[in-house]
Amino acid sequence: MRVKFWGTRGSIPVATSSAGIRDKLIAALTQAAGRQLDTPARIEAFVDRELDFAVGRTYGGDSSCVQLDAGDPHYVLCDLGSGVRTFGNHALATRRGEPGTYHIFMSHTHWDHIVGFPFFMPAYIPGNLITIYGCHASLQDAIRRQHGAPSFPVEFSQLGAEIRFVRLEPDRPYDLAGFRVTAKRQRHTGDSYGYRFERDERAVVYSTDSEHKLDDPAATLAFAEFFRGADLVIFDAQYSLADSISIKEDWGHSSNVVGVELCQMAKARHLCMFHHEPTYDDAKIASVLAETRRLEEITREDHPVQVSAAWDGMEIEL
Ligand SMILES: [Zn+2]
Ligand SMILES: [Zn+2]
Question: What's phi and psi for 156, nearest 5 deg?
Fold first, then answer.
């Protein structure tokens, strides 16, 4: 199974600023000073192998959208953040006019998780089938109402694809889209839902927009169970610990530190930090990642947890 990240930013889509690009160029050219970079191949090798990720690349700025690809002809996605625009264009380009089937699991309907749908081109094309799953009673209304006047030029009813909504109950396993899928309610304003996807002895947990309070042992244990033995946990680590225990407590998100603790308790294999804070630049996300890896190492008992920070375009093979 392959997991592909199309949007990894929290709260609102962002782009690297002009000043941010300038800083990257200065850092790259400084590092290049005195090097023999006189052919395109040498320059490419330098950029790919020697520059830090935060200098030579970017975590990206599209909001939440993650694809689970188990090799089926249909598509499986989590959330409809702005990243689904790029995904949809990619899917259409590879299908060359062939109709497609899309299964989309929604954590909740805050703007950053639905804002991509009006720009999801497969929704406009007759013959495509889109099924949107979620646990909120208001799911269909929330997605419909961002279309049409006064907010958008196209009414939902004008979309050409067949679009179905399916309400799920949390804590109950379903067989959907080729996976065993279980949803779990999470602490967040208006509630959000995490999903555990299981197939071929692999498990992926998508758990974004979830605030964990480790002072509630029953809730902590329930999440450790939900993450139990997962090959990959995609985790809302929007804040650094300093932010999460000071000004941003009760804002509905978690920190890298909580992610490490829960994945260690659950003996999960890989913690992927997701839903990055929109005010963090690439250097800040890279430094939170480095801190988190150090924390994992010094608190590790017998079970190592791989730690990564998601970026738009990243793929993880399980
Ligand atoms: Zn969000
Ligand atoms: Zn939210």
Answer: -55, -40
The alpha carbon of 251 and the centre of ligand 2 are apart by a number of angstroms equal to 9
Cβ-contact 225, 181 below 8 angstroms: no
pLDDT at residue 215, as a whole number: 82
- Decide if 206 contacts 195 (C-beta within 8 A): yes
Give the separation between CA 8 and CA 151, rounded to whole angstroms.
Answer: 25
CA distance 116 to 80: 5
Quick one: which of 204, 200, 278, 197 has its CA closest to 235? 204
Instruction: Give Cα 143 distance to the centre of its chain.
Output: 19
Q: DSSP string spanning 195-208? A: EEEEETTEEEEEE-
- What's the CA gap between 83 and 133, in Å, rounded? 18
Residue with structure tokens 């804590």?
171
Ligand in nearest proximity to the CA of 64:
1
DSSP, collapsed to helix, strand or coil, labels residue 73 as: coil
Q: In angstroms, what is the span from residue 230 Cα to ligand 1's centroid?
A: 22
Separation between Cα atoms, residue 183 and residue 172, nearest integer Å: 7
CA of 113 to the centre of ligand 1 (A): 6
How far is the C-alpha of 83 from the C-alpha of 61, rounded, in Å? 9
pLDDT averaged per 10 residues in sequence order, the chain, 318 residues? 98 96 97 96 97 97 98 98 98 96 98 98 98 98 95 97 98 98 96 98 97 87 97 89 60 80 97 96 94 94 96 98
Rg of the chain taking only CA atoms, in angstroms? 20
How much is the pLDDT for 240?
67
Strands 129-134 vs 101-105: parallel, antiparallel or unpaired: parallel
Counting every residue written for the chain, the total comes to: 318
CB 67 within 8 A of CB 76: yes
